[in-house]
Amino acid sequence: MGLCVAASGFGLAFLVLILAALLWNGLVGLTPGVFTEMTPPPGSSGGLLNAILGSLIMTVLGVAFGAPLGMLAGTYMAEYGRYSKLTFFVRFINDILLSAPSIIIGLFVYEAMVVRMGHFSAWAGAVALAIIMVPVIVRTTEDMLRLVPSALREAAAALGAPKWKVVVMVTYRAALQGMVTGVLLAIARISGETAPLLFTALNNQFWSTDLNRPMANLPVVIFQFAMSPYADWQVLAWGGALLITVSILVLNITARILAAWSSFKS
Are the beta carbons of 137 and 66 closer than 8 angstroms? Predict the structure, then answer.
């Protein structure tokens, strides 16, 4: 018991030190220019505008690809094939993907898309992020739908509603907050992923909206700037790290609020 308490205290102190260092250095780099200027050439000052917008574009695309697929798979597992062999197989693969290192997914998308296309692209980056999101959304959707009381489904079926309408109009409505929470947690999961984007979208020092070309993104820019010998770039890396941390914090708080609201309503 005492050993567990000591380990918990050490871990908490370590996290406090990390957050203090992040705030101390990140606030210096998080200036208004970060949101208005492009990434600078070596040895110059600048901002992270193209990296921020590139990350937003690929995240939105990843959500557009991954969220519907994850919700549909979770719906099948909870509503249509709860005891089927396919559901057992999908759940097993989903559990593997949940714990798979993100660099493995990046290598898979690199072989599947980048090598065959002949170049890095934002499309490949979005697909990699979507694959990382899907297992989280599948598990959350299945769990939330399983929590919906069977009496609601039976009441709707007794009124003559077909199965698909019971799922869409009754079950989805009852589990909506929990499903949205799963999507927010999945977005937080991919917000700081660097390895998949290194193998897929790579980076771009200039602003580009061409999804078929390499695109700037915050995680890769932070990695490159933190490893550079230029003080201005290192300051920007701290500012970008703080920006991602704050974004993930906001997403997690929002997800917890939605989950608590859903529990309160039920």
Answer: yes
Q: Which residue has the tokens 């770039």?
A: 233
Q: What is the pLDDT of residues 55-96, one digit of tens each?
A: 999 999 999 999 999 999 999 999 998 888 889 999 999 999
First to last CA, the chain: 36
* Angle at CA of residue 216, ends 215 and 221, nearest 5°: 150
Contact 135, 97 (CB under 8 A): yes
The residue whose two tokens read 């208004």 is 32
Whether the model clears a pTM of 0.70, i.e. scores above it, the answer is yes
Whether residue 26 contacts residue 238, with contact meaning beta carbons closer than 8 Å, is answered with yes
Tell me the helix, strand and coil percentages in the chain, rounded to 5.
Answer: 75, 0, 25
Residue 223: CB atoms within 10 A of its CB come to: 17
Q: Give the list of residues 6+ apart from residue 125 with CB closer than 8 angstroms, or none.
A: 58, 196, 197, 200, 201, 215, 217
CA of 85: how far to CAs of 82, 90, 190, 207, 238, in Å? 9, 9, 30, 48, 48
Q: What confidence category does residue 40 fall into, taking pLDDT thresholds of 50, 70 and 90?
A: confident
